[in-house]
Amino acid sequence: MFLQVQEARAAAEKAQQLLQNVANRKRNRQLETGGLVITKAVYGNRKALNEPGEGDDQLASQVVDVTLPLNFLVNDSGQLKLHEGVKKSGIMGFCDPCPGEPKQLYVEYTYGGDRYEVIVDDYEELLIPQRSHRA
């Protein structure tokens, strides 16, 4: 199992390297216009996301940083949509850091100079920006 996760992580990192240039270009364009910028996105074990800073290395290893792939997925009009019913670990640049555990996606983002944050379950739709996410 551990090896499987390591391989999945390596594949996700490789995918993120491929996305990097376009993701950064999109992010910079959004920054210039006060559009949607993902400042932090983490995917993985629900416990690890809801109890950050517990100092538990095992929990910390059960999350993956997905800030870059989400910036890549922001469209030109400054929106991001992840469809309902689609497992997020299948998104390019993501991986499943904890097979068999319930997972969530935590996203911090800025839009129009304001800060927002949202947590969604693995198969839940994510549509941002939304006023209700205001931090």
From TrEMBL:
It comes from the Eukaryota. Residues 4-129 form the DnaJ-like protein C11 C-terminal domain. Residues 5-32 form a coiled coil. The keyword Chaperone applies. Transmembrane segments: none annotated. Keywords: Chaperone, Coiled coil. Pfam families: DnaJ-like_C11_C. Signal peptide: none annotated. This is Chaperone protein dnaJ 13. It comes from Vitis vinifera.
